[in-house]
């Protein structure tokens, strides 16, 4: 075997090693992507549970939130502030979820499962007023999404 034959054999081995390495990396990237998606879904679920516990875990807070959804302007100034912070927890979560959906981290099904409940609350009179006052606090793509969904009306 000549040096040229050995060089050709070395190139063949290197090419095979490169293909094997690329295949391994593709499998690892796919596994990592699935892990990130799973983590995102779990985080969204935990945030939803936390939010539900804050609102549902205290009768006064639940009453304030319900009254705010019906008529935000009927609340005292300090209650409006409290309502805004409570509602912001929910809408911020949806904003984050929308961002992850746009990046391809969260699938549409996961995003919309979370988004439907937010949209339902934003369609309430107090939710609409909250959005009118605070929509600029959120990312422009999320503002556009919510704006178009609120114009279209409920889909359920």
* Ends distance: 75 Å
Number of helices: 6
Beta content comes to under 5%
The shape is elongated
Please tell me how large the radius of gyration is: 25 Å
The major pleated sheet works out as: none
Mean pLDDT: 87
How many separate domains make up the residues? 1
The helix/strand series, from N terminus to C terminus, equals HHHHHH
| Unreliable residue stretches | none
Quantity of strands, as a count: 0
Q: Helical amount among residues, as a percent range? A: over 70%
Helix vs. strand class: mainly alpha
Can you offer a commentary on this structure?
- The protein has one domain.
- Helix content is 84%, strand content 0%.
- The chain has 6 helices and no strands.
- It is elongated and about 90 Å long.
- It starts with a helix and ends with a helix.
Briefly say what this structure is:
With 156 residues, the protein is mostly helical. The protein has helices at residues 3-56, 59-70, 77-103, 108-122, 125-134, 140-152. The mean pLDDT is 87.
Features:
single chain; mainly alpha; 0% strand
Outline the fold blueprint.
Layout: H1 3-56, H2 59-70, H3 77-103, H4 108-122, H5 125-134, H6 140-152
